Amino acid sequence: MADEDAATVKEPLDLIRLSLDERIYVKLRGDRELRGRLHAYDQHLNMILGEVEETITTVEIDDETYEEIIKTQKRMVPYLFVRGDGVILCAPPLRQ
Amino acid sequence: MEEVSASARTPADFLKSIKGKPVVVKLNSGVDYRGILACLDGYMNIAMEQTEEYVNGQLKNKYGDAFIRGNNVLYISTVKN
Amino acid sequence: MLFYSYFKTLVGKEVTVELKNDLAITGTLHSVDQYLNVKLNNVKVVNEAKYPHMMSVRNCFIRGSVVRYVQLPPGSVDIEILHDATRREARG
C-alpha cells in the first residue's frame, strides 16, 4: 500500500493529497476564490492555507446605463482555515 | 466485461464505464465543466483532467487537473470526443 | 479529527472567525468540539459600525456549520506537524 501508491490518483482526494505543500486554487460558494499554499486538509475538504489571497467578485448594475460592472476585491491573509462545505472546486495552480 | 461498457445497467455501472472518457459535469449553480473524467468516489467527488469551465455557455477558465466536491454536482454526462 | 485536534491547540489564542453571513468576530478561543463548534471570549466584531447590535456581546457560541473561515494566528501554525497529521489522516 505504502510506496507505489503515493504518486497515483485512484480516488479524487488523491489529487488534493498530491497538492499538499503546493499552492492551490480553490473556488468557493459566494463568488470567492482563494490562492494559497495547502498545509492541511481532511475528507470534508476543510483546509488550512498559508499566504492566502482571497478574491471576491461582485456584479453591480450601473444606475444609468444598466450595464453590469464586475468588481473584484482582493485581500491577503497569512493563515486561513477554510470550512469544506463552501468548497466547489480545487485545482493545482494554473500551468498553461 | 463487454456488457458493462455499452449497455450499463445501474448508475454505478455507468460511472465505472465512463472513467477516462470526456464528460460534462453540471453543477447546481449551472456552471459546466468539460474534461476527461479521471476518477470519482461515493460522494460524487470528481477528479478531472484538461478541464474547461463554462459559465452561461462561455469559456471562463481552464485547469490542468481539477477536483470537484461532490455535493455541488447536478449530473455527469458523456460527450462525443 | 485532524482539525478538532488542531483547534484544541489554539485554545487561549486570539482568532478571527468569519461567518457565512459575512459577520467577522475576533475573540479568544475558549473551546471547540468535534463539530468545530467554537466558544469565543472577549469578542469584538470586526465591522462594528455595520453591526452595532453586537457591541454588548462579550462572549459567544458559534455553530461550526455557519463558519466560512477562521483566520489563524501565524505563530501557532506548525506546518510540519500539519503535514504529518494530514498524511496520517489521508491514509485512513
Can you put this structure into words, describing what you see?
The complex is a heterotrimer of chains A (96), B (81) and C (92). Chain A has 96 residues and is mainly β. Helix content of chain A is 6%, strand content 53%. Chain A contains one helix and five strands. Chain A has a five-stranded antiparallel sheet with strand order 4-3-2-1-5. The longest helix of chain A is centred in the first third of the chain and has 6 residues, at 12-17. The model of chain A has no long low-confidence stretch (mean pLDDT 90). Chain B is mainly β and 81 residues long. Helices cover 15% and strands 52% of the residues of chain B. A five-stranded antiparallel sheet of chain B has the order 4-3-2-1-5, with no helix packed on it. Chain C is α+β, with helices and mostly antiparallel strands. Chain C is elongated and about 45 Å long. Helices cover 23% and strands 34% of the residues of chain C. Chain C has helices at 2-9, 79-91, and strands at 14-19, 24-32, 38-45, 60-62, 67-71. Chain C has a single domain (2-91), classed as SH3 type barrels, CATH 2.30.30.100. The interface between A and C is medium-sized, with 23 and 24 residues. β4 of chain A pairs antiparallel with β5 (67-71) of chain C.
